[in-house]
Amino acid sequence: MKGNIDRSNLPNHLAIIMDGNGRWAKKKGAMRIFGHRNAIQAVRESIEGAVELGIQHLTLFSFSTENWSRPQEEIQALMELLVQTITSELSLMMKNNIRLSTIGDIKSLPTSAYEKLTEVMHQTSTNTGLTVHLALSYSGQWELTRATQRIAQKVSEGKLRPEEITQVTLADHLDTAGIPDPELMIRTSGEFRISNFLLWQLAYTELYFTEVLWPDFRKEHLFAAIEDYQKRERRFGKTGEQVKP
User: Fold this and answer.
1) CATH top-level class for 11-139+182-232?
2) Domain spans of the chain?
3) How many of the other CB atoms lie within 10 Å of CB of 63?
4) Is 67 a known active-site residue?
5) What is the chain's pLDDT, residue by residue, as a tens digit (245 residues)?
6) Active site residue: 19, 21, 38, 181, which one?
7) In angstroms, how far is CA 225 from the centroid of its own chain?
8) Active-site hit among 4, 6, 21, 67
């Protein structure tokens, strides 16, 4: 319950792998897109819950680079749903001071989706509350590969020496540069893996897995995950005695 949450110990950045839409639809004897359409409420409630708690960053794994291999009709339906959703939710984003951002290769998206995303990102760019980061055409391996290419280009141009490359250098060339790493990552649907999501950033993230399928995910499930997070001792390689106040 929200009332049990310690507001002084919130994750500044929450990441979610939204999994289970297809299985949810299959259980109801419907096509996969039916599950995707019914997942919009889960997205809305997760955002509302994050706003109510005062969380600053919410990253939603929306479409991976691997998802391009899905049937073309499903991809097309997903992209149309993306455009419809961000269009219909714009007024709520403005009302709740929410800024929309993306990570991933969004230029690979259909033109209509790319243009609507950039339009809404511009319209919400001055909002100062929760930032919602949509991971679109994204994977951790793709991101690390591109960051390496960017660094290698600087080395080849003489702007950077190999011995100057540090962990900070790599982090600064990721799509998430300037964004704090997630303290908590939630995955729905009972799967116990991170599926190529934020591979660098999840190094010390607390992982929370729930069997709830994404279309059924509500604020109460979000709050339960945060309550669980607050019971954990985050040591970052140190001993328990070292991190105790």
Assistant:
1) alpha beta
2) 11-139+182-232
3) 22
4) yes
5) 788 999 999 999 999 999 999 999 999 999 999 999 999 999 999 999 999 999 999 999 999 999 999 999 999 999 999 999 999 999 999 999 999 999 999 999 999 999 999 999 999 999 999 999 999 999 999 999 999 999 999 999 999 999 999 999 999 999 999 999 999 999 999 999 999 999 999 999 999 999 999 999 999 999 999 999 999 987 656 565 555 66
6) 19
7) 15
8) 67
